[in-house]
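Ticket #4471: structure export looks truncated?
Reporter: QA, pipeline team
Priority: medium

Steps to reproduce: submit the single chain below to the structure queue and open the exported record.
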Amino acid sequence: MDKKFKRTTVTSALPYANGPVHIGHLAGVYVPADIYVRYLRLKGEEVLFVGGSDEHGVPITIRAKKEGITPQDVVDRYHTLIRDSFKEFGISFDVYSRTSSKTHHQVASDFFKKLYENGKFIEKTTEQYYDEEAQQFLADRYIVGECPRCHATDAYGDQCEKCGSTLSPEELINPISKLSGAKPVKKETKHWYLPLDQHEEWLRQWILEDHKEWRPNVYGQCKSWLDLGLQPRAVSRDLDWGIPVPVEGAEGKVLYVWFDAPIGYISNTKELCDNNPQYGNWEKWWKDEETRLIHFIGKDNIVFHCIVFPAMLKAEGSYIIPDNVPSNEFLNLEGDKISTSRNWAVWLNEYLVEFPNKQDTLRYVLTANAPETKDNDFTWKDFQARNNNELVAIYGNFINRALVLTKKYFDGKVPALNELTDYDKETLKEFSNVKEKLESLLDNFKFRDAQKEAMNLARIGNKYLAETEPWKLAKTDMERTATILHIGLQIAANLAIAFEPFLPFSSAKLRTMLNMPDFSWNQLGKIDLLATGADLGEATLLFEKIEDDVIEGQIQKLQDTKKVNEENEWKPNAIKEETTFDDFCKMDIRVGTVLDCQKVPKADKLLQFKIDDGMGGRTIVSGIAQSYSPEELIGKQVCFIANFPTRKLKGVESQGMILSAVDKDGKLTVISPSRAVTNGAEVG
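Actual output as written to the record:
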């Protein structure tokens, strides 16, 4: 960064409080954000780390309905679980609050009102999907149907989870309401929109010209959106869970969660500062031009944090806008996309129970596999290998050797530094610029490479002891042994500093072993961190080996999950016994138009159709009343078998059979031609 800032505000994406946090969240957002914040603090910089739970939005209302509880019950449960998991994992937020708080409701309402009063919104009346049975407008997630791209039958109105396509409800084939199963209708409703198109010119300059240093994935996604042309985006929606739109006549409408959630960064800061005067006035963290704003997010949030939220802040007029948005790509699990709905994930709260005191192992592996420029994969075998072959065999082995040998030969006191050999000087030179290397990488958000550089320091130390073999020299040359162990202990002290942002628990443990309570980033790379004669603490293992059976247990856990998913996955019925072309030709399948349709009295499943079959008309009774309302079918062309023998159903003579497909959930879909044909046309 060229400009010098006095302080830095760091935010991390607000996780939805409708489920626990998994390793994908950690790798994409929270571990890199925590590394960066710890690094700034270690340098003595003024920094604020803001987090919190996103507690509004449709996923929460869906879970509440599914469990038969209130949305508040849902968010109370998961906010506590997520907050406590983050704390135990070492994510060092200055504040972790929630968007259901009174402070947030007030701040978000005031933010909306200022933009509204200053004419920054446009009002539009549009037609949106409405469930007549549930008597409410449908959020995108309350609408499901067939994906127009991959033809999965359970795509949501905003996204198909099978192929990943972003959708709109209008694109779905045969959409239905998740609330009632009914086919939704279009109904007029009024909403307020943020006219992003009016911000396009300055956004294009600010991102594409002024921030070419942003990560390629962030820059590229923003460019794609800008090149397509920005459109107004609704900031309100018809829902009963959220922050009420603070405008007269807006009853039954709340702030859209994408508008409400990022304001949570601001409200959480205000809540912290109001209750903790040592942080100063909240506005210095959000409105002072000498404050740098950094957003850590996953790639699914790039547009909101690089285009939408900056447009909101600019429209308000008094806020700074982000200086960088270091977004990561996605982390997969054992070669498959992480899916919360399929339980294909490693959940943080479960990991903390199953791997006690191994927070740093997971932090290390997630950083080593960080999806900084492309999607990456987490496997349990790699997790084990990195722990055993790197943390234990390199870093831990070096520390253990240095301290145990010092205890054995010098009574646990830092030995004297005597005359240096050329090899000593070469070793010391190897890490003399470690501070500059790490700073260059961390300042540019290259956390994976920075951790490699920190581990390289452990490799230097391990190699140094392996090649000098002080345990052999101690038999003949204690002076030389003292020098070797002195240098080894200085490398160990450097490691305690270098790994502090990445592995905070291990670094604290190492500093205790080195009796090194005071340390700073500026000491990194120096060789006088431990004074000659200083007492060391008790040597303990820094890391523990993870055995095969532990890893096999985790792999089996995932295999069990996969088996359950496969068992629950819908599969077509087996093909019926072989038939012949002649048998098929016996069926006279025709196309007709539904002239009238009504429910058959005292029959929940039956509908009575009047069909224009091109031959004078006929009546057909079909058991599809639970999949369609009569009004949906009037005027529709359907396929029917014309030469079925007439039979009576609930007293009505049925002259044929309407063809329909049965979906995995038992829903029926009538078979229709893809374009209009003449009534009576044969199908064959």
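Status: closed, not a bug. The export was complete when the record was re-opened. Leaving a note from the reviewer for reference: DSSP finds 20 helices and 25 strands in the chain.
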